[in-house]
Structures are given as structure tokens and as C-alpha cells.
Amino acid sequence: MIMANITTMSGFLLMGFSDTRELQILHALLFLVMYLLTLAGNLIIITITTLDQRLQSPMYYFLKQLSLLDLSFISVTVPQSIDNSLMDDGYISHGQCVLQVFFFTSLAWAEVAILTVMSYDRYAAICFPLHYEVIMDPSKCKWAVIAVWLSGSITGTLYTASAFSITFCRAKIIHQFFCDVPQLLKLSCSNDYLGVIGVAVFMSVMAIICFTSIVLSYIHIFSTVLRISSAEGRSKAFSTCLPHLFVVSFFLSTGIFEFLKPTSDSPTAFDLMISTFYTVMPPALNPIIYSLRNEALKGAFRKLLWGGEFTRKKTFLSWC
Fold it and tell me: Transmembrane stretches, by residue range (predicted)?
């Protein structure tokens, strides 16, 4: 009778991490702490890269967009998961699930796209420093960001339209803490999920192209950096590139692993941990990774913290 009600209900049942009440509360508290820290870290980066005119170069302009994406990305899944755990109710309506799939896939792809743009920016800055302002002029930066958000929206639309065109004829139980597309496919009893597979294959090819572009950019970057005679110059170049490379590797490796591994009717703690790694950890770690070895960001943060005045020095990208 219960399974019949689950099958015929309009929404879905998110199983989350545990059925034990104490563990549900612990999960909610941990996610709440992570969420608040992520909000604070990314809002600080958005604030200081907006107010401090010394941080108006393309690198910080794209970093601000990444922080905005991170804020949005973590807000798609974590608040809903916290609410479900506190209320001891994993139910999510059909409309909420549709919106979650749309925004999750849109923002995930937009993150891949902005990380690709950021790698090209570092490539241009280090390999062609004399032509950098021409290569990364304000109009190109603006159109690059528009392309990032637009490509994310198109991806989200394709994924959502194909995912919810299938007929759900099994118990609407999702063994995840958010509406995960691979889990939704398991609820289909026919071949009408092939459209989703087609979209996934197409986007996988695009992701491989982006990843290849990032790898090639860093091959050129590191070969150029190693030829720099100044130890200080090499250190400065590595300090801006290595954090970005870590973010790209972490986000893509955990996400690819999650989507390539077979879905399970009874996922293990390891499966849920991997999904946490690519949904929660990157937005939380990005502010730390990008600011830890960046003296300009740390200086701007100290000014924000102590109520100092930000510089009004103009740069060629000050309009951003």
C-alpha cells in the first residue's frame, strides 16, 4: 500500500543520508554550517572584487562570476536537503524537482564553462603578457560571461525537457539528497529515456572538449612558467594557476566519476560522499583556494574587515 502511494504520488521521495533521526539532525547541522560558510566566503569575494578597483582585471572579473555561480549552485540542493532532514520528510514536489534538475544542470555546466574561460585567461596572461589587454579586452570578457550563462541555460533546458519527458512507472524513490538525473532514469520502465542519454552523450563530448582545452592551456602555461628566470615570477604564476588547476580537477573528476558509475538501488555511504564532493565541496572550497595565496584578495579582505577605504584606481576593465 505504501509503495502504491509512492508510485502514484505527484512528487518524489528523497531518501537522503539516513533514516535515523539523530543522524538526520547531524546531517542538517553539518550542511547548514557548510552552507553558511560558503555563502560568507563567496559573498566576500563578490563584494571585494566589486568594490576594490585594483581587482578589476579579467582574472578577478571571472572569479566574481565563479563565486556567483557557486552561491547559486549550492543553493539549489543544500537548503532543500536541510529542510527535509529537519522536518524528517524527504518529499519533494514534481515542480520543485523539475526546477532543481534545471538549475543544477545549468549551473554545473556553467561552472565547467567558466573554469575553461579562466584557464584561457591565465594562458593569455602568462604566455602573451604584452598582448593580454588586447586578447582579453572588456567586450570579449563580457561576451565570454554571456556565453557561459547562456550555455548553462541551454544545457539545463535540454536535460530537464528530456528527463521529464519519460514516463515514471516505478516507485518514485530517489536514493539521493537531491533530484539526481541518473536516479530519475531508474524510474522509467520503457526506452523513452534515450533522449536523456543522447543529451548526456552530447554534453559529455562538450565537457571533454573543455577539459582538453584546459589541459592544453596549462601545458603551455607551465612550459612558459618554467622558463621564467625570476623565482619570484615563477612563484607568482604558480600561485594563481595551481589553485585553478586544483578546482578544475576536483570538480570534474568527482562529477565524472558520479555520472559514469552505475546507479544503485541502495547506495553506500561512499556514493553519497562522492555526490557531496561535487555538489557541496567545490563551492565551499573555492573562496579558500583562490584567496589563500592571493595577496591582493587578502589585502582587500583586510580592508573590508577593518572598514578601510578601497582604492579608486581605474584599470582597463573597471567597468566590470
Answer: 25-48, 98-120, 141-161, 193-219, 240-260, 272-292
What is the distance between the alpha carbons of residues 273 and 76, in angstroms, rounded to a whole number? 18
Q: What is the pTM of this model?
A: 0.85
Specify if 318 maps to a domain: no
C-alpha 63/C-alpha 118 separation (Å) is: 8
pLDDT at residue 3 above 60?
A: no
314 inside domain = no
Parent domain of 264: 2-306
- Per-residue pLDDT tens over the stretch 105-116: 999 999 999 999
Assign residue 90 the CATH number of its domain: 1.20.1070.10
Cell of 81: 536537503
* Number of structural domains the chain divides into: 1
Pairwise pLDDT comparison (151 vs 315), residue with the higher score: 151
In the chain, % of residues over pLDDT 70? 83
Which residues contact residue 136 at a Cβ distance below 8 angstroms, ignoring those fewer than 6 apart? 58, 121, 124, 125
pLDDT of residue 225: 81
pLDDT at residue number 29 = 93
Specify whether the CB–CB gap between 15 and 173 falls below 8 A: yes
**How far from 154 is each of 14, 103, 106, 109, 183, CA to CA, in Å?**
26, 11, 7, 10, 22
> How far is 287 from 284, CA to CA, in rounded Å?
7
Residue 316 belongs to a domain: no
Distance CA 180, CA 280 (A): 14
H helix intervals, the chain: 2-8, 21-51, 58-87, 94-127, 132-135, 138-163, 181-185, 194-225, 231-260, 269-279, 281-292, 295-306
* Cα 179 from Cα 102, distance rounded (Å): 10
Q: Which residues of 254-290 are buried (b: 16+ CB within 10 A; e: fewer)?
A: bbeebbeeebeeebeeebbebbbbbbbbbbbbbbebb
Name beta bridge partners: 112.
Answer: none
In a domain, 311, yes or no: no
